What we know:
By secondary structure, the chain is of the alpha+beta class. It has a domain at 27-40 and 129-298 and 337-458: Outer membrane efflux proteins (OEP), CATH 1.20.1600. Helix content is 65%, strand content 14%. The chain contains eleven helices and eight strands. It has helices at 2-15, 19-23, 30-40, 42-65, 89-93, 130-197, 203-238, 253-261, 274-295, 343-409, 415-450, and strands at 27-28, 68-77, 83-87, 106-110, 115-128, 247-248, 300-313, 323-335. Strands 2-5-7-8 form a four-stranded antiparallel sheet, with no helix packed on it. α3 (30-40) crosses α6 (130-197) and α7 runs parallel beside α11 (415-450). The protein is elongated, with a radius of gyration of 42 Å.
Amino acid sequence: MKIQFIKSVFILFGLLPGATVLFSQETYSLRQCLEYALDNNRNLKKSNYDREKAAYARQEVLGSLLPQISGSANLNDNLKKARFIMPNFVNSMLPPSAQDPDAEKYMIIEMGTTYNANVGVSLSQQVLNLGLFNVLEIAKTAEKMAALGVEADEEEVISQTVNLFYAVQSTEYAVTQMDRSVELVNRMLETMEENHRNGLVRKVDVDRLKVNLVNLTTQRVAVKNAAEVQKNLLKLQMGFDVGNPIDIQAIDLALFEEKVKDNYESPFSLKNQTSFLLLMEKMDMVKLQKKSAVYEYMPTLSLMFNYQYNGVSDEFFRGETNYWYPGSVVGLSLRIPVFSGFSRRYKISQNSMELQKAREDAELLGQSLNMAFMNARIKLADMRNTINLQRDNQSLAEEVFRVTENNFMLGLSSMSDILNAAQSLVQAQLSYAGALNDYMKAWVDLKKASGSIRDLLTEN
């Protein structure tokens, strides 16, 4: 019964949501890391907010081209009615015999009613406003620039994530290789301790090997900690909770060797460069801003319609003095710029200079991107040679250590030879791991320089 109860408990825990997290942890591939980063990177989220903001700004400008309708209502209590002073024409209009010679020359007349109110609606519509239409084009261009900004940030996130991913892989590979070295030295130490007990090896040689093993173990721990630091940087780049552990897929040397042997290079084209496309949109923006200055010379025409319903009364809208009447007006408003003190002319000249600067920037950026592509090709070719040399050097160091170990057992090599061979092996392993990382960085740089960085989204 007790065994059956224990089995039931384990089955229950296995069915609980998240129970698998307690027993296993998902290993992230490169594609999974990239997908997670594109969904959760904080800076990328901000860029997407800017794109949405630009879309709303374009809709705001578009809304200003549609009819603008507003309503109004007023209620006034004229506590003191307006009074007007005017000649006493009433007395002068009387027959001479009826006129009062002592009448005031001027008389005071109270105007208006105690209460007045109105309710109305007004409508205005732009009929001809080239400047406003141009603002709409500016808003559209700004939206395109925001979209390209998101693409540029996505490419940067992809590049940074891939570099950190491969850095973790190569460092963890170095840890694995150093584990082998520790195992080799530890196995040799056990053999030497046994030989020392049999009087075949000096104690000082055993102690020297122990010191070497401690140093090697300490070095391995430092490399392992470096891998953890790189993992934390990767998690921060991905938008992953830095407090949670993450496992990265181990490096596939066979797949890596295929990349080293593959001499395919992506062609270079400015049409594939997001930064160049973004600069082209900026140039269009400058052109539109120049048009805005030109359109300030153009007349504008708008349509206006207004309808009101007015009411007046000496009592509060009742009684014999309560009157209500409608009123409406429709019209066109034409504005023609005549003279602005030459300010518009100088504004156009400033925009012309900005356009010239943008063209120079485009030429410079095109040359810089082409140079970056050529340099990336050179660096990748150099790293291809380096990785081949470091791979062969690691294999040679392993063979040297094996031969030196056998010779020591036969009395043909000294302890110094063993220690030197062990240190050379560790250095060769670290150099090869570093070459792995450097090659992958060069490979990613070439992808980025050729404008094909998004191809990495299909990597496993």
